[in-house]
C-alpha cells in the first residue's frame, strides 16, 4: 500500500492545526481533542511519509522543517479538495455553500471588501466570505501556501506562478492642499510640481510605481516624507505638508480630521493600473471561488469607470 493511501485526512488536519497554532497543546485545544491524540497523529504522519515535519526544541517549541513547510502547502490543498468534495455532494441540485478566504491588497480593502461582502452575500447567501489583507508579498505567499484561493490586487509585481483576471482600470491622480495654487485645475503636469515637497505612499510596490511615473515624465520628485497609510497621506496633504500621487480616489475629499483636499488628473502620459482577481496558476479553484471570481468580473467589470476608487 502506498504512503498516500495510509495518510488520513484527520492526520493532515491535525498537522495543519499544529503548524498554525504553534504547539501541540494549542492545536489540541483548537481541535477539541487530547494533546496525546494530536501528538500521535503527527508522529504517525511523519512515520508514513518518512520525513521529519517539525523540529522539537524545549525552549522554542515546534518549528516546521523545510520538508514540513512543503508538506503543509500540499496538506492544505488536499484538505481544501476534501472539503470541496463534501460541499459538491451536498450542493448537487442545491445552492453553493461553505467558506471562502479572499485576499485583498491593503489599500483596496476599504473600497472593495465591504461592497463585495454585501453584494456577493446577496447573490450567494450560502457562501461565507472571510478576507485577509496585506502587501503584495503577503498576498503572494497566501496564494502559494493555499491560505486564500483568490486575491484582489493591482497588476504590479505579480509572480510568474500567478494568474490574473482584470476587473477594471484605474489612473493615478494628484492630491493637493485645497489652498494650493493649482487646486482648482482639472489636471496638472508633474513637472509643475517638481520643486514642491511630496508625501510618498510607502507601501511596496506603490513607491516603485509612483517613481516610475515620475521617471517617465522626466521628473525627480522632492520627497519630503513617507507613510504606509493612504489616509495619513491625505491628512498630510490636507494640512499643507505637500502634494501626493495616489491610485484609489476618495468619494469624500476630506481627511480624517475634517480638512478638505483637492484631486486633479495627471496631464502626463500615465498608464492605467489594473485591479485584478489573482489566483495561483497551479491551483484548481473550488466552486465557491469560481462563483466569486465570475461575480467580481460581472459586477465590477460592469461598473467600469464607476468602480470603487476609479473616479
From TrEMBL:
UniProt keyword list: Activator, DNA-binding, Transcription, Transcription regulation
Domain called HTH lysR-type: residue spans: 7-65
Stored InterPro entries: LysR_HTH_N (IPR000847), LysR_subst-bd (IPR005119), WH-like_DNA-bd_sf (IPR036388), WH_DNA-bd_sf (IPR036390)
A GO CC term attached to the entry: protein-DNA complex
Gene3D superfamilies membership: Periplasmic binding protein-like II, Winged helix-like DNA-binding domain superfamily/Winged helix DNA-binding domain
Keyword Membrane part of the UniProt annotation: no
GO molecular function: DNA binding; DNA-binding transcription factor activity
Role, per record: Required for the induction the katG gene for catalase. Involved in the response to hydrogen peroxide.
UniProt family annotation: Belongs to the LysR transcriptional regulatory family.
Full protein name: Probable hydrogen peroxide-inducible genes activator
Amino acid at each position: 500500500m502506498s504512503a498516500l493511501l495510509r495518510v488520513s485526512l484527520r492526520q493532515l488536519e491535525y498537522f495543519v492545526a499544529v503548524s498554525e497554532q504553534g504547539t501541540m497543546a494549542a492545536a489540541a485545544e483548537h481541535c477539541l481533542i487530547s494533546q496525546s491524540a494530536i501528538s500521535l497523529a503527527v508522529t504517525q504522519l511523519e512515520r508514513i511519509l518518512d520525513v521529519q515535519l517539525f523540529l522539537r526544541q524545549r525552549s522554542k517549541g515546534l518549528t516546521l522543517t523545510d520538508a514540513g513547510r512543503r508538506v503543509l502547502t500540499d496538506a492544505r490543498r488536499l484538505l481544501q479538495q476534501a472539503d470541496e468534495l463534501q460541499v459538491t455532494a451536498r450542493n448537487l441540485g442545491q445552492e453553493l455553500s461553505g467558506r471562502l478566504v479572499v485576499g485583498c491588497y491593503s489599500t483596496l480593502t476599504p473600497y472593495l471588501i465591504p461592497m463585495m461582502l454585501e453584494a456577493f452575500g446577496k447573490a450567494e447567501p450560502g457562501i461565507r466570505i472571510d478576507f485577509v489583507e496585506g502587501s503584495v508579498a503577503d498576498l503572494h505567499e497566501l496564494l502559494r501556501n493555499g491560505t486564500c484561493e483568490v486575491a484582489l490586487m493591482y497588476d504590479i509585481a505579480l509572480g510568474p506562478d500567478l494568474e490574473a483576471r482584470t476587473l477594471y482600470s484605474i489612473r493615478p491622480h494628484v492630491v493637493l492642499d485645497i489652498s494650493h495654487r493649482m487646486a482648482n485645475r482639472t489636471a496638472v503636469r508633474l513637472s509643475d510640481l517638481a520643486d514642491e515637497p511630496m508625501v510618498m505612499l510607502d507601501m511596496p510596490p506603490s513607491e516603485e510605481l509612483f517613481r516610475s511615473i515620475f521617471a517617465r515624465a522626466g521628473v525627480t520628485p522632492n520627497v519630503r516624507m513617507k507613510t504606509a497609510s493612504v489616509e495619513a497621506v491625505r491628512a498630510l496633504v490636507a494640512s499643507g505638508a505637500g502634494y501626493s500621487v495616489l491610485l484609489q480616489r476618495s468619494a469624500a475629499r476630506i481627511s480624517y480630521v475634517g480638512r478638505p483636499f483637492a484631486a486633479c488628473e495627471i496631464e502626463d502620459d500615465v498608464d492605467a493600473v489594473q485591479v485584478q482577481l489573482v489566483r495561483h496558476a497551479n491551483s484548481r479553484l473550488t466552486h465557491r471561488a469560481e462563483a466569486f471570481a465570475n461575480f467580481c468580473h460581472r459586477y465590477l467589470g460592469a461598473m467600469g469607470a464607476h468602480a470603487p476608487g476609479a473616479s
